[in-house]
Design goal:
The protein is α+β, with helices and mostly antiparallel strands and 164 residues long. It is 42% helix and 24% strand. It has one domain. A six-stranded antiparallel sheet has the order 3-4-2-5-1-6, sandwiched between helices. A hairpin with a 3-residue loop joins β3 and β4. The radius of gyration is 14 Å and the shape is globular. 43% of the residues are buried.
């Protein structure tokens, strides 16, 4: 069986180091990161999302340095507009899940990962408030190691859930 490990980061530096440490331990395929793109107004939001979509995010060149080095560490980074949250930048497998269920938002994507709806809504609110959400799918044998790596790098609200 597999599980999903979730944690919140208040700073980009801790999230970047957690991704590096996870990849070093062999967790490189299933790491996802979501963060809110801060904008001054709707016009800026739309132009920045278009600019983000035109960039090669796998090279880590994100407008405004939102994810900065993290986008370079994770494949599949892209910009999404999520109702009720606004523009977010998502990288990893959860990014493609979110792209397919934008009406369900982040909470809906997490529910698809096996996270209870109430907890998914909590994590969505935390992203809305500016925190970075890191998720990782892992075998049950490795979840404690993954959770420890997140905590060691400053993650808060670290939880593990059986994935679907």
């Amino acid at each position: 069986m597999s599980s999903v490990v979730i944690g919140l980061f208040g700073d980009q530096e801790g999230a970047e180091q957690a991704v590096r440490d996870l990849k070093e331990e062999g967790f490189d395929q299933e790491i996802s990161l979501i963060t809110k793109e801060e904008n001054e107004g709707q016009e800026n939001m739309e132009s920045e999302v278009v600019a983000l979509e035109e960039q090669d995010l796998s090279e880590g060149t994100v407008t405004g340095g939102v994810i900065g080095g993290v986008a370079g560490l994770l494949a599949g980074a892209g910009a999404l507009l999520i109702p009720g949250i606004g523009p977010v930048i998502a990288a990893g497998p959860l990014a493609s899940t979110l792209a397919g269920i934008v009406t369900g938002g982040i909470a809906g994507g997490l529910v698809d990962y096996g996270v209870p709806e109430e907890r998914g809504e909590y994590y969505e609110e935390q992203v809305r408030q500016g925190n970075m959400l890191l998720t990782l799918k892992s075998t049950d044998d490795n979840v404690n190691e993954a959770a420890s790596i997140l905590r060691a790098n400053g993650a808060e609200d670290v939880e593990t859930h059986s994935s679907k």
